[in-house]
Design brief:
There is one protein chain. With 472 residues, the protein is an alpha/beta fold. It has one domain (16-305, 417-467). Helices cover 24% and strands 35% of the residues. Strand 3 (124-129) and strand 4 form a beta hairpin.
């Protein structure tokens, strides 16, 4: 754990770290658009069992039936017929040796700190480039305890019964919305984790997803099963270079927290500002289980992302804390959903947003407490900070409480950095820009201190970069 008060002077981020792109070097790229022929080709290329092909074809059928969402940010500029849904880099899949990764891809991930992070702090690392996982490795100490950490494509073959039981069934059904159906049809790569009963994985596991190709689509599937009384920390990072054409990210995260288990999922998404980030994340939590979400959303033209917890078991808990940053031409529509079903369940939602240069941030949340969820507790806090008078901040909390024994609290604040705050800090020797950055650092501290050190520093520096030139 860390805090924003730590010395970060030695940590520098160059925007080109994220926005650079390699010359495309693909061994295969599907023509733009989606069709049954493409879906069958993806399944055949992966040598999948018949049940997975059927799930893909059902996804395609539902995708064609459902309409585009109209209740959030506009998706009119997203042309789904202009996206390449399946692209394979000219690289060996699932290499356990970093030396086997092609130099151009290796340099990209080295810029993003993947090998260094693996050496220093992590229990295992996966790296996906376009539609293919090109590197995956779990430290031997966790392998010996029976932890499974694989590319999801590989897990379909090695653990078919486990994958079939949990893959897009009770947690994220195919028909949830148009983009989960699309995901079911064209998903590729991602992370599969199984933690056996009683095993507590103390070192975080990490995956990093990178889109490089122009007009690309990435649809990785993360499936995590934390068995009874087990524990896991998992971190995802995401980025893509800046192009003039739009890209699409519609991944899916499913987390199953079994009896007495605990899972922490942390994510920093820094997609480029021509990417539509339409991601789906959900967790099902059984008796005495705990799910923790830590989310940072920085990039993208449009994000629609609402991590959801379904507290099915008695005494289960969900904690969510997230930050969204919207600058010029960005619309960050984010939030959290919690459904409390078991008795004595509890949930907390802390959502923070920052907008500048005309950016739009929206908190969109759902808290549903079902009849019979006796003694449920819930607390929702939404705080928005606007840097200027051109930006927008919206709050759309929805609460559906059917149980009279519920203890519920909700608080929302929207504010601008005041002249008085700036004046006070400038009177202590800071420049106006430094004063604004200090106020923002204090505003995001609750999120930062929940992240591992490297990611906390990265998030702070990314927001500092976004804040540069915010005067005038």
């Amino acid at each position: 754990m860390t805090s924003s008060t730590q010395d970060m002077s030695k940590f520098e981020i160059d925007r080109s770290t994220y926005d650079h792109f390699n010359k495309e070097n693909l061994k295969f790229r599907a023509a733009p658009g989606i069709s049954e022929k493409l879906v069958r080709a993806i399944s055949k290329d992966k040598d999948e069992p018949e049940w997975m092909l059927k799930k893909r074809l059902e996804g395609l059928k539902v995708f064609n039936e459902l309409t585009m969402p109209t209740w959030g940010p506009s998706l009119k500029k997203l042309d789904l017929n202009d996206i390449h849904y399946y692209s394979l880099p000219d690289a060996k899949s699932n290499s356990e040796s970093w030396e086997e990764v092609p130099d151009d891809i290796k340099k990209t991930f080295e810029k993003l700190g993947i090998p260094e992070a693996e050496r220093e702090a992590l229990g295992g690392v996966g790296a996906q480039y376009e539609s293919s996982v090109i590197y995956h490795k779990l430290k031997e100490e966790w392998e010996k305890l029976g932890v499974v950490f694989l590319d999801t494509d590989e897990a379909v073959k090695k653990y078919p019964e486990l994958v079939k039981k949990y893959f897009m069934t009770s947690c994220v059904p195919t028909r949830l919305h148009k983009f989960t159906a699309l995901h079911a049809a064209v998903w590729s790569g991602g992370t599969f984790i199984y933690v056996p009963k009683g095993v507590k994985v103390k070192a975080p596991l990490q995956a990093y997803f990178r889109m490089n190709a122009k007009k690309g689509g990435q649809f990785e599937h993360t499936l995590i099963i934390v068995d009874e009384d087990a524990e896991l920390q998992y971190i995802e990072g995401c980025s893509a270079p800046q192009y003039t054409a739009n890209s699409l990210h519609a991944g899916c995260v499913e987390i199953h927290v079994l009896k007495g288990a605990r899972a922490r999922y942390s994510s920093i998404e820094n997609w480029s500002k021509n990417t539509y980030n339409l991601n789906t994340k959900r967790a099902v939590v059984q008796k005495d289980g705990i799910i923790e979400w830590v989310n940072g959303n920085m990039g993208s033209a449009v994000t629609m992302l609402y991590p959801a917890s379904m507290l099915i078991g008695d005494n289960s808990k969900s904690h969510f804390i997230g930050i969204a940053f919207a600058g010029k031409d960005q619309n960050q529509d984010t939030g959290c959903k919690v459904t409390q079903i078991g008795k004595n369940t509890s949930s907390t939602i802390i959502s923070k947003s920052i907008s500048k240069d005309g950016g739009i941030t929206t908190y969109r949340g759902l808290l549903s407490i079902k009849k019979g969820a006796k003694n449920a507790k819930a607390n929702v806090e939404c705080d928005a900070l606007m840097i200027d008078n051109k930006s927008q901040s919206n709050t759309f909390p929805y609460m559906d409480v059917k149980e009279p024994t519920t203890d519920l609290a909700h608080e929302a604040t929207v504010g601008r950095i005041s002249d008085e705050q700036i004046f006070y800090l400038m009177s202590r020797g800071l420049s106006e820009e430094q004063a604004k950055q200090l106020i923002v650092a204090g505003f995001i501290e609750p999120i930062v201190k929940e992240l591992p050190l490297e990611y906390a520093v990265e998030l702070n520096k990314l927001i500092e970069l976004e804040m540069e030139g915010s005067l005038g």
